[in-house]
Amino acid sequence: MPSITCPKCGSDRVRPSLKQSWIERVLAAFGFEQVRCRNCDERFSTGIVDLRNAAYSRCPRCYRLDLGSWKLDHYHIPFLSKILLKIGGKPRRCDACRCNFVSFRPVKLRHVRRSKRPAAVDVAVRGELAHS
């Protein structure tokens, strides 16, 4: 999966940056966004149009493709999102940046949270190691 990486430090922790000129606004209309690295604070331009992944849902905040879903009864849903859900949109959640949004596109990669090991198993394993 191609992801946006920082040219300075190589990190994939990027976020959208504010447009600073009218040229950047025009380029954004053609798919060239200004992004900023969360690790080293480097600001750079990148083309976010990825034709192989254009049909899949993408996080609007950090552009990741590995998404989960969110339960409607746990969050206050904005009015526009309620309308989009009524006409067939799906609730999507990016666990990397904790952004909830509604999308009509399918998910390419599902993010599955790992379940924590029960405490009883940890105690039993430590007990066996102590007796060995």
Topology:
Layout: E1 14-16, H1 22-29, E2 32-37, E3 43-47, E4 66-67, H2 79-86, E5 90-94, E6 99-103, E7 109-110, H3 119-131
Parallel strand pairs: 4-7
Antiparallel strand pairs: 1-2, 2-3, 5-6
Short characterization:
By secondary structure, the protein is α+β, with helices and mostly antiparallel strands. The chain has helices at residues 22-29, 79-86, 119-131, and strands spanning 14-16, 32-37, 43-47, 66-67, 90-94, 99-103, 109-110.
Task: Describe what you observe in this structure.
- 22% of the residues lie in helices and 21% in strands.
- The mean pLDDT is 80.
- The chain has two domains: 1-49, no CATH class; 57-113, no CATH class.
- The chain has helices at 22-29, 79-86, 119-131; strands at 14-16, 32-37, 43-47, 66-67, 90-94, 99-103, 109-110.
- By secondary structure, it is an alpha+beta fold.
- The protein has a three-stranded antiparallel β-sheet. A two-stranded parallel ribbon has the order 4-7.
Residue windows where pLDDT falls under 50 for at least 5 positions: none
Question: Could you estimate the helical fraction of the residues in percent?
Answer: 10-25%
Strand segment count: 7
Taken in chain order, the helices and strands follow as: EHEEEHEEEH
Shape: globular
Helical/strand content category:
alpha+beta
Main pleated sheet:
3 strands, antiparallel
Strand content: 15-25%
How many helices? The count is 3
Q: Number of domains in the coordinates?
A: 2
Strand sequence of the main sheet, in spatial order? 1-2-3
Evaluate the radius of gyration: 20 Å
* Arithmetic mean pLDDT: 80
